[in-house]
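Example for tutorial group B:
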């Protein structure tokens, strides 16, 4: 070995070096030629030895016959399920080819669900008298775990349906019998599963029933109709020994009237399912990894669940958010800072408690030159060795820590994480909501808003059509407005839908009587919010024109309103149609009156603005007030175009916890209009002053000042940050962390 100082350390004959590597992609030929090579083929090991050693860890209360039955179930159903999954189902994040990951996931879930419950000799095991009852428990728990481990990596509802159909056929032992129009069962790709290794000779059979494949539900007219259900719709209740639909566990209590929009979580079947599985993993110390597209609530589920855990047993959770620029040093600092020293070399939460560490956006860090992601390698060191080295090269053993993580599917800026790290987690895919679930979620929120704010009946009736129209806009935008290099920001997700609904909740019941009044005003507000959320993102006239035409169609199909009649008051040239230029005058705002702004404790009315001349005059008054109070007055000429932008910025500032990205060429008034809008909304503007000597230290101090003003003193603030102030990429990183996790 050659050291930095040029000194050479010779290796003696009794020293050996053994490398264990994944591949030789970054090894130099000189290194490779000096090493003897042993290649281990993964499929020679497979999952079975893992299963045998796992069975030996069962508690003593469990009989041999129990273990034999579990092993027989594994040998019968696991190999063919892994082959089916690898061939037919698109996984949300790739798992090992020979299925070891999903098989281990199955073992962990099975152990937490059933084996741990049987460990206590006086508990559940005493109530199960007959052998046949025990077999029923084993088979049903195995089925449940099979669906959520091997079938739980599917990235869509279609994948789950296919797996459900396959498991039902395999479990009845009908893989080699005629199925539908085919001579034997075929998967969606046309593959047959009747090879000797798919159906082992002399495999076990069972009479334990599957979960029902259809249930009777009431349609809107009150008639009972059969609805198809899958193994994903039920869970095995160990105490009652029966299949229970998840529906029964949904919290049906109404939303409390004083809730704020951002706090509302509408419970659905999905929330219940994912939280049950997360809780099962956490209670028995298995790390769990949620993987799914953005906007499906991964972080919200986990944060809500971790915050609600028993305070006696759990220390407050630690939330760590990753992004492209996260380094292993920052990660280590964020985690070490929250742990106390227990004794020399041992660290952990306060004694007697456990701590959950939630890592969000796990796969965001960029890869370095040799293809590794340093923050992930650091976390892997904890998973493999129970700790890591600090700056002084002393090993820190970390006790009573449990990692849970969430990430988006690999692709785009997100890279797949290394298998050596992913194997420690139970991977659970979170699929996108179907339209029924979305209508339920947003319908519940809108219905709650209409009811608590006492809107008239003719507005409450609109709930269904408003939701359907909004979801139509969202689904069509996803399919038609695709991101290209020139339009890289055309990425829409479910947060956009909730922004439109949140915009609607700014209106008040008395606001319907003012302005042009009536139900039409509510329709116009919907059009306005949709334009603000989707239309303001569009960069060329072609897209804008298409979007406007589409909105015109929607108002007719969903609301039965003629768009041009609805906005007749904007039609200046009197040609009977409202074009893009005239629609710019569709404005809503709360700054026309003289009341206190919301941030100062007022409660202004968010109302339609119809008189354009009056807007400009009112804003000029605000500008005079601003210049009178400010140390650096702004000489602005107010005209309608600027007024529109001020109104748009004010709309964002009115919503709690909303942020704005103003895009435009230099000198188009992004900063001055933002300052004016902040003043109108009664908020302070805060900006950093860049100089030659400005470094990260000053940046951190400035951020602290801003956070103290907003958080400790409770003053509503606006942090204004422009692209010319990004002296170091880490600034953007810090802002990203504040937006994500608030620290």
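The residue assignment follows.
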């Amino acid at each position: 070995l050659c050291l930095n100082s040029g000194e050479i350390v010779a290796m003696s004959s009794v020293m050996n070096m053994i490398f264990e590597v994944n591949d030789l992609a970054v090894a130099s030929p000189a290194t490779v030629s000096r090493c003897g090579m042993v290649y281990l083929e993964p499929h020679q090991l497979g999952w079975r030895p893992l299963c045998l050693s796992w069975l030996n860890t069962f508690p003593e209360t469990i009989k041999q016959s129990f273990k034999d039955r579990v092993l027989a179930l594994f040998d019968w159903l696991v190999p063919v399920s892994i082959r089916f999954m690898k061939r037919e189902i698109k996984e949300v994040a790739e798992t090992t080819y020979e299925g070891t990951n999903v098989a281990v996931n199955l073992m962990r879930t099975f152990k937490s669900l059933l084996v741990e419950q049987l460990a206590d000799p006086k508990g559940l095991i005493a109530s199960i008298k007959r052998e046949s009852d025990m077999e029923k428990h084993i088979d049903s728990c195995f089925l449940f775990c099979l669906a959520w481990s091997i079938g739980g990596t599917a990235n869509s509802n279609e994948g789950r349906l296919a797996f459900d159909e396959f498991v039902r056929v395999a479990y009845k032992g009908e893989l080699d019998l005629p199925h539908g129009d085919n001579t034997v069962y075929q998967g969606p790709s046309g593959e047959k599963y009747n090879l000797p290794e798919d159906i082992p000779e002399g495999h076990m059979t069972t009479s334990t029933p599957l979960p029902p494949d259809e249930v009777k539900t009431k349609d809107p007219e009150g008639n009972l109709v059969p609805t198809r259900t899958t193994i994903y719709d039920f869970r095995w209740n160990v105490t009652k020994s029966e299949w229970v639909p998840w529906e029964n566990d949904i919290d049906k209590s109404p939303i409390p009237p004083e809730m704020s929009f951002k706090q509302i979580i509408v419970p659905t079947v999905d929330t219940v399912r994912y939280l049950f599985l997360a809780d099962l993993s956490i209670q028995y110390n298995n790390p769990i990894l949620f993987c799914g597209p953005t906007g499906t609530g991964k972080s919200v589920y986990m944060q809500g669940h971790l915050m609600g855990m028993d305070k006696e047993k759990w220390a407050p959770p630690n939330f760590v958010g990753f992004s492209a620029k996260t380094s292993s040093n920052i990660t280590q600092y964020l985690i070490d800072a929250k742990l106390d020293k227990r004794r020399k070399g041992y660290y952990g939460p306060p004694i007697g408690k456990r701590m959950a560490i939630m890592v969000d956006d796990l796969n965001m860090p960029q890869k370095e030159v040799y293809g590794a992601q340093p923050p992930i390698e650091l976390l892997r060191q904890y998973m493999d060795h129970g700790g890591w080295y600090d700056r002084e090269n002393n090993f820190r053993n970390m006790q009573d820590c449990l990692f849970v993580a969430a990430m988006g599917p690999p692709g785009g800026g997100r890279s797949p994480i290394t298998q050596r790290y992913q194997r420690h987690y139970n991977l659970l895919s979170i699929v996108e909501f179907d339209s029924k679930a979305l209508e339920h979620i947003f319908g519940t929120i809108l219905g709650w808003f209409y009811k608590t704010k006492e809107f008239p009946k003719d507005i409450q009736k609109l709930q269904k059509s408003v939701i359907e129209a909004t979801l139509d806009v969202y689904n069509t935008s996803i399919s038609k407005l695709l991101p290209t290099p020139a339009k890289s920001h055309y990425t829409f997700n479910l947060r956009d839908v909730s922004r439109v609904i949140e915009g609607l909740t700014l209106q008040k019941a008395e606001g319907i009587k003012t302005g042009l009044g009536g139900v039409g005003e509510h329709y116009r507000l919907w059009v306005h919010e949709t334009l603000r959320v989707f239309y303001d993102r569009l960069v060329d006239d072609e897209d804008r024109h298409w979007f406007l035409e589409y909105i015109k169609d929607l108002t007719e199909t969903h609301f039965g309103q003629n768009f041009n009649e609805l906005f007749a008051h904007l039609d200046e040239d009197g040609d009977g149609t409202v074009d893009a230029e005239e629609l710019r005058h569709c404005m809503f705002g709360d700054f026309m009156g003289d009341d206190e702004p919301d941030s100062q404790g007022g409660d202004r009315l968010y109302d339609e603005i119809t008189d354009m001349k009056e807007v400009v005059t009112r804003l000029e008054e605000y500008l005079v007030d601003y210049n009178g109070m400010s140390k650096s007055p702004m000489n602005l000429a107010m005209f309608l175009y600027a007024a529109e932008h001020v109104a748009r910025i004010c709309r964002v500032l009115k919503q709690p916890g909303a942020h704005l990205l103003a895009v435009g060429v230099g000198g188009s008034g992004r900063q001055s209009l933002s300052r004016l809008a902040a003043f109108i909304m009664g908020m302070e503007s805060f900006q950093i002053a860049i100089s030659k000597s400005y470094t990260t230290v000053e940046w951190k101090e400035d951020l602290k000042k801003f956070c103290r003003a907003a958080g400790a003193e409770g003053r509503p603030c606006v942090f204004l940050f422009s692209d010319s102030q990004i002296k170091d990429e880490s600034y953007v990183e810090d802002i990203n962390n504040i937006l994500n996790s608030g620290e």
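The radius of gyration is 30 Å. Compare this with the pattern of hydrophobic and polar residues in the output above.
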